[in-house]
Design a protein that fits this description.
This protein is mostly helical and 258 residues long. It has three domains: 93 residues, no CATH class; 27 residues, no CATH class; 86 residues, Arc Repressor Mutant, subunit A. The chain is 55% helix and 5% strand. It has a three-stranded antiparallel β-sheet.
Length: 258
């Protein structure tokens, strides 16, 4: 049976591991103690090898680089040149930290905008080949041709919309005033109130008026139970006046209502 393999904390690369060690031990990247960093890194490498974790070549290459920097730190250096063997590594760690912080900030934006796509604007070039002028007579002739092809004349086209254009206009304020006057005398059945409408326009005006009066708490709807216990909207919903004269005046409705 194949030996078990243990997975230890994974890192995206050697720089990710080094940055984690630096932050864990609160080191200064610009003045990192290379001895401590190198020892900690090698402890991770040895621990991974003992747990039979496969290491990528870049981790081993970084281990060799750390050993090289550590050996150069032990050799005497020319003070005039002010050379620091750790500088390339420190610069790489700083750049990696900036990239990691930027990735963390952009990750939230990716969750919001990652699935969105934007379509580039289409460039539509103007058609300069058709430059004929259109006067009123040409437009009128084109309209007549369209009406002829549709088997319509200008007269029949006007007649089709005449009923809509010349439909009687019923002010909602007038409807509300009439309703309040009736409710002052007696309650009304809701179904009968709508059935007394002369046409659809009046029925719509009544419906809007009732909604306005209900919203203003001037009228109320009462459901009257039936003798058999089953009530319906046709014969068992009653309109009644729910406000006093002072409350009606305070509702700030149109003067046509009184």
């Amino acid at each position: 049976m194949e030996a078990l393999r243990y997975r230890i904390e994974a890192f995206e690369g050697p720089l990710d591991l080094l940055l984690t060690l630096v932050e864990k031990h609160k080191m200064d990247i610009a003045d990192v103690p290379i001895d401590l960093l190198c020892d900690q890194y090698m402890d991770y490498i040895r621990d991974a090898e003992e747990r039979d974790v496969e290491l990528a070549c870049e981790f081993l290459s970084m281990a060799a680089e750390l050993m090289l920097i550590k050996s150069r730190m032990l050799l005497p250096r020319d003070p005039a040149k002010n050379e620091d063997p750790r500088k390339p590594l420190a610069d790489a760690l700083m750049e990696y930290r900036r990239a990691k912080l930027a990735a963390a900030e952009l990750s939230g934006l990716f969750d919001i905008y990652g699935t969105r796509t934007a379509k580039e604007q289409d460039d539509i070039s103007p058609d300069r080949t058709y430059v004929a002028d259109h006067d009123a007579d040409l437009l009128r002739a084109a309209l007549s041709r369209v009406l002829t092809e549709a088997r319509l004349t200008e007269k029949t086209a006007h007649t089709a919309f005449e009923e809509i254009v010349h439909a009687p206009r019923i002010p909602v304020e007038t409807v509300m005033g009439t309703l309040i006057s009736k409710l002052k005398e007696q309650n009304l059945w809701l179904d009968g109130y709508f059935r007394d409408s002369a046409d659809r326009s009046e029925c719509v005006a009544k419906f809007i008026g009732i909604l306005e009066l209900l919203k203003s708490h001037i009228v109320a709807l009462d459901e009257i139970p039936a003798e058999d216990g089953v009530s319906d909207m046709d014969a068992h919903v009653e309109l009644r006046l729910a406000a006093t004269e002072e409350e009606i005046a305070a509702a700030n409705l149109s003067t046509d209502i009184y």
